[in-house]
Amino acid sequence: MTGRQKRQIINAIQIILILIAIFIMLVPILWIFLAAFKNHVDVYQLKLFFTPTLENFGTVFDAPYNLGDKLLNSTIVALVTVVFAIPIATLAAYSFSRFRLTGETAILVMILATQFVPAVVIILPFFVMFRDIGLLDTRLGLILVNLAIVMPFAIWMIKGFIDGIPLDTEEAAMVDGSSRMQVIVNIVLPMAAPGLLTAGIFCFIIAWNEFLFALILTNKDAVTLPIGLALFKGEEGDLWNLLSAAGIIIMLPMFVLALIIRKYFVQGMTMGAVR
């Protein structure tokens, strides 16, 4: 067997494995998509051909499910989390990247270590604290929790992007009379924009999909979309057609967001990977 034939076999195996992986990933999404347009009877049958209906998407927004309120809560919580997390994380990351701080390594390690603490360990202190200060079942409470979740991740990611920006450009601007803040606004932020956008996307996804804290800390007024999925139950069991319709609504912003910023996303990931 020649070297060319070996390469062809290896390439064929790689293509087959990739196709299998794509199939495994897409089949559940395809099933959810089809089930969202089926009635309750058809959803339990493996039918590729059926009479589609849009009734499920209207039903999930009606009482008692009221998915619109939960959609509003998730949108506000995720957006406000990103709006506050990215500027704060950017300033912190810039400080760690450009200044030599006492105990810098230990501080960075402690920030990273918070990501390894299981959520079930800290949920009770958050519950007791929010109960005492009146933040249970509020959007503000969820925003504060999500900030605590995404900030360490955002700081580490943005620091990697800022590390990749040449220090000479900042020094040249400061020699010309620019202040530190002007350097950050006029040089660092534009050059790190793809990285900031990448970090913002990840923060939004984390806040959008957060489940455990929202489950424990909300009850009625601030319930989010992931928690709202638990409501789709009836006397006959799980209402998979309604669950699938709600699942499409939850996934749709992620797909739209990915299509809009895919170019910047790849560029940002590349910046963060290259030193």
Measured distance between first and last alpha carbons: 41 Å
Classify the fold: give the CATH topology of the largest domain: MetI-like fold
Strand content: under 5%
Given the structure, what is the number of helices? 12
CATH evolutionary superfamily of the largest domain: MetI-like
Helix content: over 70%
What CATH architecture of the largest domain do you see? Orthogonal Bundle
CATH class category of the largest domain:
Mainly Alpha
Major sheet description: 2 strands, antiparallel
Quantity of strands, as a count:
2
> What does the average pLDDT come to?
86
Order of H and E elements: HHHHHHHHHHHEEH
Strand order of the largest sheet: 1-2
Rg result: 24 Å
Number of domains: 2
Q: Could you please describe the fold and organization of this structure?
A:
It is globular and about 70 Å long. A hairpin with a 2-residue loop joins strand 1 and strand 2 (237-238). The longest helix is centred in the C-terminal third of the chain and has 34 residues, at 240-273. It has 275 residues and is mainly α. The two termini are 41 Å apart. It folds into two domains: 3-35; 57-273, MetI-like fold, CATH 1.10.3720. Strands 1-2 form a two-stranded antiparallel ribbon. It has helices spanning 3-35, 55-59, 67-98, 104-113, 119-133, 139-163, 167-175, 180-191, 193-209, 212-217, 225-228, 240-273, and strands at residues 233-234, 237-238.
